[in-house]
Design brief:
Blueprint lengths: L16 E6 L14 H8 L6 E3 L2 E6 L2 E6 L7 E5 L5 E6 L10 E3 L3 E5 L9 E6 L11 E3 L5 E5 L4 E3 L4 E3 L6 E3 L7 E8 L3 E11 L7 E6 L2 E6 L5 E15 L3 E11 L7 E9 L1
Parallel strand pairs: 1-9, 10-15
Antiparallel strand pairs: 1-4, 2-3, 3-4, 5-8, 6-9, 7-8, 11-21, 12-15, 13-14, 15-20, 16-19, 16-21, 17-18, 17-20
Organism: Gimesia alba
Protein name: DUF5077 domain-containing protein
């Protein structure tokens, strides 16, 4: 995986604050439930925050992060670290219309484009659907009460040149899969062995289907031929087979292309392992 080091550009504006507000919903390493204050504290208590930078400080909030910046020139954009979070919307706090700002997701950082006339004391609101998780450590997904291991795109570990998590509402996917050598994985923790039905939520653009992909856990492997769905963000859940998982503890589910048919392999929003 690309190391998720914290890198922030220094061309930021004075007194500029970026506030990331988080809601309470679901999809890169835990289940689909609202997080209590206790779980939030557990997730962020890795000596990650506050993070002091030459331009200011990043601090954690119960419902997000606050970036207080103090550079001398208004920037064209600001970057934040890639988080295990789905983005709902981004806008200037003093904009009553809440006009969305553009987000450009990279592999390790997300770039937020700012208006040319942004004021020096502006605050940008970035709303998420869950409590913030800065992936200093990968999330490890456990089986939920419905006997399912739900692996969301936001919790994927990506390996390679182009593959990345795209957090925008209409995407929320592992995408940019144009390099057939790129691959991704999730960490899961099984308490007991078992046989699991495997479902993969995939999208693929018109005329781009036909790539062959392998899904594996340890020595258990399944093959999938990617189905064209009309658009890369038009997702269809596919039942791709069963995995017999004999080991317990933390292990890796990996998704690797075998053959790329056209320009890109596919987009993946979620994988579910359902115990039989």
């Amino acid at each position: 995986m690309h190391n998720l080091t914290l890198r922030f550009t220094r061309n930021l504006i004075p007194q500029f604050s970026v506030l990331l507000i988080v809601g309470t919903v679901v999809c890169f390493f835990h289940g689909h439930s609202a997080l209590s204050a206790t779980k939030f504290a557990a997730q962020t208590d890795q000596k990650q925050f506050p993070i002091k930078k030459s331009w200011g400080t990043i601090s954690a909030l119960p419902q997000g992060l606050k970036l207080k910046l103090s550079d001398s020139k208004p920037p064209k954009s600001v970057t934040i670290p890639r988080l295990n979070n789905r983005v709902k919307t981004i806008y200037l706090a003093d904009d009553d219309t809440k006009k969305p700002l553009t987000l450009k997701p990279g592999i390790e950082e997300w770039e937020i484009q700012l208006p040319e006339s942004v004021p020096a004391s502006a605050t940008v609101i970035v709303e998420f659907n869950e409590a913030p998780y800065l992936p200093v450590k990968p999330k490890v997904i456990s089986e939920n009460a419905d006997q399912q291991v739900v692996l969301d795109a936001k919790d994927a570990l990506v390996h390679g040149m182009l593959l990345r998590y795209e957090p925008q509402p209409h995407k929320n996917t592992v995408g940019y899969w144009a390099n057939e050598n790129d691959w991704c994985e999730w960490k899961l923790d099984l308490k007991t062995p078992g046989v699991f039905d495997v479902y993969l939520l995939q999208g693929c653009g018109r005329g781009q289907g036909g790539s062959e992909v392998q899904v594996s856990v340890n020595d258990q492997k399944l093959k999938l031929t990617v189905e064209e769905t009309g658009h890369f963000q038009n997702f269809k859940e596919r039942h791709i087979g069963k995995l017999k998982l004999d080991q317990t503890g933390v292990q890796s589910l990996q998704v690797k292309p075998i053959k790329k048919a056209r320009n890109a392999v596919m987009d993946v929003r979620q994988i579910r392992l359902v115990r039989q």
